[in-house]
Automatic annotation (TrEMBL):
Organism: Longimicrobium terrae
Annotated signal peptide: none
Gene Ontology, cellular component aspect: plasma membrane
Pfam families on file: ABC2_membrane_2
Keywords associated with the record: Membrane, Transmembrane, Transmembrane helix
Protein name: ABC-2 type transport system permease protein
Alphabetized GO MF terms: ABC-type transporter activity
Transmembrane annotation, as ranges: 23-43, 63-82, 103-127, 139-160, 167-187, 217-238
């Protein structure tokens, strides 16, 4: 199968992200937990249990609920955003390329870029805090889950960028209101929360004691719901992209 079209589409998507000034701030912010972990280790040796709890706190309270969706939001909304704003998306749509190939390539490109931004500090934070004490696959489990969660977030935010010019605002509302506020008040909303899917996947891979960390959703439920949600978002994105036919977006 000739993937030259996908490589070209991915290269354009990466240029959209790297040309975004917000990208630099996202990259710098992603290393915040590493700096905090270094300070924590410098001022307190801590027992193995305390270090495990602190590591989980970094993952559960900072990286997954804040840094991961923020990175995915900036990257996901940028892979189409510039082309839609200046109308150059019509050049892509003018070529005989299936819409689903365009959407899939852009989502995967955004997912790879998000992983490149967020995974190194995720691993570094775990290594600084736990070193050789990670006998329960905590760092590995959260790294895999965050990578998968990044793709899900990117799929959602790419879809938002195809539907509204205020995708950043819409994405922030989803993260803050739906996953943050409503997710803490109503258990039913967790079944439609990428944050909860990410935590559940981490819990399924890591073997840490339940007294330290237990995700609200079972891992199997998260996988099924995650697959359903990403397929629904992909279909929605393809249909949204079809609105940008030549002449309509100009």
């Amino acid at each position: 199968m000739n993937l030259s079209i996908e490589r070209t589409l991915a290269a354009v998507a990466f240029r959209q992200f790297t040309g975004n000034r917000k990208a630099l701030w996202v990259v710098l912010l992603a290393w915040l937990p590493v700096g905090m972990a270094l300070l924590a280790r410098a001022f307190s040796a801590g027992t193995p249990d305390e270090r495990m709890k602190d590591t989980l706190e970094f993952y559960q309270s900072l990286i997954i609920p804040v840094l991961l969706p923020l990175a995915a939001l900036v990257i996901g909304t940028s892979v189409f955003g510039g082309e839609i704003e200046d109308g150059t998306v019509t050049y892509v749509l003018g070529k005989p390329i299936a819409r689903w190939r365009i959407v899939l390539t852009r989502v995967l490109a955004a997912g790879v870029a998000t992983a490149a931004v967020i995974l190194p500090p995720t691993i570094a934070t775990g290594l600084v805090m736990l070193g050789r004490l990670d006998h329960t696959n905590v760092v590995w489990g959260f790294t895999c889950a965050i990578a998968a969660g990044g793709v899900l977030y990117c799929a959602l935010f790419v879809a938002l960028s195809l539907r509204t010019r205020r995708a950043l605002v819409a994405g922030l509302l989803y993260v803050i209101m739906w996953e943050g506020t409503l997710g803490g008040l109503f258990a039913g909303t967790r079944a439609l929360s990428i944050r909860q899917y990410t935590l559940a996947m981490a819990d399924a891979i890591a073997t840490v004691r339940g007294s330290f960390f237990t995700a609200p959703l079972p891992g199997q439920t998260a996988l099924i719901m995650g697959a359903i949600v990403v397929i629904a978002i992909a279909v929605y994105s393809v249909r949204s992209l079809q609105r940008f036919e030549i002449g309509e977006a100009a």
